[in-house]
Structure formats: C-alpha cells, structure tokens
Amino acid sequence: MKIESIILILSTVVSLFLTHIYTFLYTPPYREGTVKTIVIPQGASFSIVARELEKEGIIKDAGKFYYLAKFKGAITKIKAGEYEYTTSLLPSEVLNRMVNGQVKEYAVTIPEGYNIKDIATLLDNINIAEKSGFLGKAFDRIFAASLGIDGDSVEGYLFPDTYRFTRGMTPEEIIRKMAQRFDTVYAEIAHKKSSGLMMSKKQIITLASIIEKETGDGRERPLISAVFHNRIKKGMKLESDPTVIYGINGFNGNLTRKDLLTKTAYNTYKIYGLPPGPIANPGRASLEAATNPSPDIYLYFVSKNDGSHYFSRNLKEHNMAVQFYQKGMRKNKNQKSENKTRNKKS
C-alpha cells in the first residue's frame, strides 16, 4: 500500500473521529427539550451517573460523557442532589451544572404564626425534610445555642418567609437559613423599638408570637400589643388562649374549661407575665407591634366573630362586650336556627 493511501486512510479516520466527537459535544440529544429530573446520591460513582443520564435521554453516550468529564478533571467534582435537566442541553452544560451544584430548588412559603411542629409537617409533606429529623434538630438546645438562641428549641426564631430549598439540604441547613433571615429582620426592627421598652430580645419575640396567634385582623396588632403591655405593667395575667394551647401536648382542637384551669408553664390564665418562650414564629408586623405598641390604655379584648376584636379599658366594659359579642351572638344564632326550623315545618 502506498504511503499516500495510508495517509488518506488515517486522515479519514481522524476526520471521522473528530466529527463524531464534535457531534457529541455540540449536538443535544433532542432538539425539543423534555424536562427530566434525576437524583445523584452522595458518593455515587460517575459511571453510574453517566449511565442514568443516558437512560433518561439527557445525554446520548455515557462512555463519551465519561471521557469528557475525565478530560475536564470533573470525575470527582460532581455534587450530590436533585437535578432538573432538559433533553436539549449540550453534554458540557449537563456536566457543568453537576460540578457547580446547580440543583433543583423549591419555593417554600412558611406562613406567619407557624410553630416548629407546623413547619416540620409542611416540609415533610413536600419531601424537603423528614419531620422527625427536623424536629430533632429544632429541639436540640446545643444547636439552638450555636445560633445565639436562648431556649430549649429554635421556636420563634425561624422567620416566616418564602425560601428556596433543595431536597439535598439537611435540617440543620434549613434551620440555619431561616434563623439567619430572622436575625436580619430582627436587627432592622430592634433599633426602632419604642424608647423605654425594658424587654429582652427573648421577651419581645415571645410577646410577638402571642400577638401573631391572637391576630385575626392585621390592623389590630398594635392594639393587641398594647393590651398585653398594659397588663404586664399592671401585674395582671395575660390570659391568652393560644399560650394555653401551646402547652397542651397533643391538643385536639377543643379548648376546655379544664384546660384553662390546669397549670402549665404556658397557661397564662394561671401564671403571671410571659410564658417561658415563644409559642410560634412571628412575622415582621407582629415583631414591630411587640416593640411599638399602640399608646391606648386597653386591658381587654373579645372576638367579634368576624376576625376582629372589641377592645375595652375596664372590666365592666369588657363584660358587656362579652355579653353582646359572645353570649348575645350565640343566642341570636340559636334564635335564627329555631326560626328556620319553624319555617321548614310550616
């Protein structure tokens, strides 16, 4: 065989090889992308990951993808987690996302007034964190102390907000992220608190959590705050139902007279002052209300059964409001029910 023929064959082989490589690198598996989600476990072998990507149609050739990663020195640099790809991505884009840890994120909204058990249930329901693991870390006193929290848990210090979480995050990472957000917001509020307010950070957060749970109409927060501040100053019991409920293990949704008469650390019908810690995680508005109460001299409030409250300055006025809004409303409802029954019979 002539040397010219050999050179031609070699040139052709090299050309075909380079064309093959170029096609692999710069041609996506499909022109129209289909969304695919894959999970890379901690410590997974790159070869197994590559085969899974090929199986899902995210790449065309696991072997070539392996050599691409080896050429880039990325074999040991991919990060575990849940990834969302489309089948129209180039192999280099797929690889870069794994190396950079661009995992799939979920927007999770934590409502104001949720306690840590509520948060744990929410995260468990959407498969972000296992409930037991989250609660174990949330009630870890040493971990709480590492976050600068004075208490047996992180209750009250997880700011209600919308977060972007990943399914690879640990409970510790989630709690730390929420606690850092709380610190940022609290710092913005603390320097604007009412002058002469002699309360510690823990007391302010505890009061804010009670305000959060008592509030049906957000506009009433400063008024509810005033009631509790005024009662504390006068040495009166706070008498807040949400605190009683928080102290009942396995509360069934029905607050009874017996519950109100049973002394617990959180029963503010039986103890004076604030309970030992927050009963929920307050939002910005409740924290602001706790630090800047209305100047009104209200001492009582009663539900008007429409989400709002009637506020009173003395017990006589309060009793009249209770008679009207609670007993009177029940009587009216019963009367209406009787009238409906009569109308049906007639």
List the helices and strands and how they pair.
Elements lengths: L2 H24 L8 E6 L5 H10 L6 H10 L9 E6 L4 H10 L5 E4 L6 H10 L5 H8 L2 H6 L15 E4 L5 H20 L10 H14 L6 H13 L7 H6 L10 H5 L22 H8 L8 E4 L5 E4 L2 H31 L1
Helix pairs in contact: 2-3, 5-6, 8-13, 9-10, 9-13, 10-13
Question: Would you summarize the structure shown here?
Answer:
This protein is mainly alpha-helical. It contains 14 helices and six strands. It has a two-stranded antiparallel ribbon with strand order 1-2.
Walkthrough of the structure:
The protein is mainly alpha-helical. The protein has 3 domains: 3-100, Dna Ligase, domain 1 (2-Layer Sandwich), CATH 3.30.1490.480; 105-191, no CATH class; 197-346, no CATH class. It is 51% helix and 8% strand. It has a two-stranded antiparallel ribbon. A two-stranded antiparallel sheet has the order 3-4. Strand 5 and strand 6 (309-312) form a beta hairpin. Helix 5 (116-125) packs antiparallel against helix 6 (131-138), helix 9 packs across helix 13 and helix 10 packs parallel to helix 13. The longest helix is centred in the C-terminal third of the chain and has 31 residues, at 315-345. The radius of gyration is 31 Å and the shape is elongated.
Features:
Dna Ligase, domain 1, disordered C terminus, elongated, 14 helices, mainly alpha, two-stranded antiparallel sheet
